[in-house]
Amino acid sequence: MESPMKTIIFLMLVSLMATGCARRYTMTTNGGGQIVSKGRPQLSNGVYVYKDLQGRRATVPAGRIREVAPSSMVTTPRDGMGR
Fold first, then answer.
1. What is the average pLDDT across 12-32?
2. Best label site of 28, 29, 43, 82, fewest CB within 10 Å?
3. Quick one: average pLDDT of 72-81?
């Protein structure tokens, strides 16, 4: 019979690995739009290279991006009507 401590440690490691792999980032554009990516976008030669939510490679010019942050830290933009 396995010890309960080994089971708890195993479950903690599995959950830690799962959350680390699924991190999403939000790039906020100068116009207020948002682009969500799987993983952290990489800045290369003046463009951000990222994977979209379908896993496809995509790029966006760095001049169009105001902020890059983990999606958990980004608030949803509001329109002029307070919605």
1. 77
2. 82
3. 67
**Residue 21 CA, distance from chain mean position:** 10
**Phi and psi torsions of 55, nearest 5°:** 90, 5
Contact assessment for residue 59 and residue 49, using Cβ atoms and an 8 Å cutoff: yes
Token pair for 69: 């942050």
Residue 28: closest CA among 56, 62, 79? 62
At 55, list the tokens.
């896993």
Q: Tell me the mean pLDDT in the region 59-63.
A: 97
Taking a C-beta distance cutoff of 8 angstroms, is the pair 54, 37 a contact?
no
What torsion, rounded to 10 degrees, do the Cα atoms 60, 65, 67, 71 define?
Answer: -40
Instruction: Report phi then psi at 19, rounded to 5.
Output: -75, -30
Average pLDDT over residues 40-58: 95
